[in-house]
């Protein structure tokens, strides 16, 4: 008998939640905190499975804190935790800094490029169970496109200097959740600096199925923070120009014909694109999201689909994508994988594993708007205030609250 091999692709919230919950089950510590109490598998594996994490980043980046990282270099350092400093490696988890090139579900082989090696020769790793937790693409600088912490901090430092180089407005483009939080954080960090939020629609959060009361409350809080809202105007182009003292600023052209000059532009718009280009087309929809069953296994017609799982933003499921949803999905995937391995070792051949299934996610939303926050509760009520912010985000946009995930 040989240990089962589990490969997790992507080490953000969903991927690390999967790993940490598997470790907790195997070590007898139980599961991580969850909004829904889950049942531990009746039969655990006789042999501890081998877990390998593949990630193109060399560490975990706290995406929820990205707006704060843009304004605070000390916080930016804490927001990126190197995997070599994570305690889960002491539990036998192997980390490979890699870009995944392809997945062969028939032979159960992942082909990847090792980013720490000088050779471009592809490498391969075999698996028994695969978890896709690669999330979705967002433009830099809100979500870094650097693959190492060192390069990220250099780029973040350049952005920080751009903010202070000239006395001109900060221009945030995109009025979705990320744009709202980024603009509000800029206004909080730089109260004397003008902040402009440009959005192509007449209402904020226009791509989310949220009630008008929620969107209006968010708009009110942004206006209270003295953020200038340029609604119904599309970003057309920007050029960098030199000021009289030799420093650079940006000149942004809008669809209305207006031209705005600012110190820097932060782009927070565009459709989220899932990072699943390495998967066979049988397993994804036209937009690239992984089609899953309620037990988080692949629902596509491809080979060995029940042994492949997807969690987090890359998975196609109802509801607004969130950190909490990714953590919950990772926990459920961990239970089902451990249960599947244990069931193979069951002496009672009549034993039937009942997998954990995720429910339809209710319409929930928690959005930080500077020192305040707006929540959409399960009963449909809208609440806002500093107490909501303190409850859900704390002083560091959830960094300490979620610290357990990357330990």
UniProtKB/TrEMBL annotation:
A single GO cellular-component term on record: cytoplasm
Cleaved signal peptide residues: none
Molecular function per GO: electron-transferring-flavoprotein dehydrogenase activity; flavin adenine dinucleotide binding
InterPro entries attached to this UniProt entry: FAD/NAD-bd_sf, FAD/NAD-binding_dom
Alphabetical list of Pfam families matching this protein: Pyr_redox_2
Domain FAD/NAD(P)-binding span(s) in chain numbering: 5-329
Superkingdom to which the source organism belongs: Eukaryota
Protein name per the record: FAD/NAD(P)-binding domain-containing protein
Organism the protein comes from: Aspergillus pseudonomiae
């Amino acid at each position: 008998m040989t240990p089962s091999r589990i490969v997790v692709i992507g080490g953000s919230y969903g991927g690390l939640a999967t790993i940490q919950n598997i470790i907790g089950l195997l070590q007898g510590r139980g599961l991580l905190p969850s909004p829904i109490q889950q049942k531990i598998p009746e039969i655990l594996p006789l042999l501890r499975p081998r877990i390998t994490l593949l990630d193109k980043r060399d560490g975990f980046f706290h995406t929820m804190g990205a707006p704060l990282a843009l304004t605070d270099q000390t916080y930016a350092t804490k927001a990126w935790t190197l995997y070599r400093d994570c305690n889960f490696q002491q539990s036998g988890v192997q980390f490979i800094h890699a870009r995944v090139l392809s997945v062969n579900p028939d032979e159960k082989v992942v082909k990847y490029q090792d980013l720490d090696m000088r050779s471009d020769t592809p490498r391969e790793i075999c698996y028994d169970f695969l978890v896709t937790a690669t999330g979705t693409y967002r433009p830099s600088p809100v979500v870094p496109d650097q693959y190492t912490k060192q390069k990220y901090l250099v780029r973040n430092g350049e952005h920080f200097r751009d903010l202070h180089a000239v006395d001109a407005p900060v221009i945030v483009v995109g009025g979705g959740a990320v744009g709202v939080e980024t603009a509000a954080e800029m206004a909080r960090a730089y109260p004397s600096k003008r902040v402009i939020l440009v959005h192509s629609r007449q209402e904020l959060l226009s791509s989310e199925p949220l009630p008008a009361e929620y969107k209006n409350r968010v708009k009110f809080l942004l206006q209270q923070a003295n953020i200038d809202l340029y609604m119904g105007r599309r970003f057309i182009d920007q050029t960098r120009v030199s000021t009289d003292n030799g420093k650079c600023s940006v000149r942004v052209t809008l669809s209305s014909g207006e031209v705005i000059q600012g110190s820097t532009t932060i782009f927070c718009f565009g459709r989220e694109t899932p990072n699943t280009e390495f998967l066979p087309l049988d397993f994804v929809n036209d937009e690239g999201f992984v089609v899953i069953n309620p037990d988080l296994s692949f629902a596509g017609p491809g080979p060995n689909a029940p042994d492949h799982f997807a969690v987090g933003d890359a998975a196609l499921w109802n509801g607004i994508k969130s950190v909490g949803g990714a953590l919950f999905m990772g926990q459920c995937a961990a239970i089902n994988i451990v249960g599947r391995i244990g069931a193979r070792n069951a002496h009672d051949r009549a034993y039937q594993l009942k997998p954990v299934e995720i429910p339809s996610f209710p319409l929930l939303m928690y959005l930080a708007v500077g020192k305040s926050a707006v929540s959409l509760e399960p009963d449909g009520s809208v609440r806002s205030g500093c107490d909501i912010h303190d409850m859900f985000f704390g002083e560091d946009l959830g960094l300490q609250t979620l610290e357990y995930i990357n330990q």
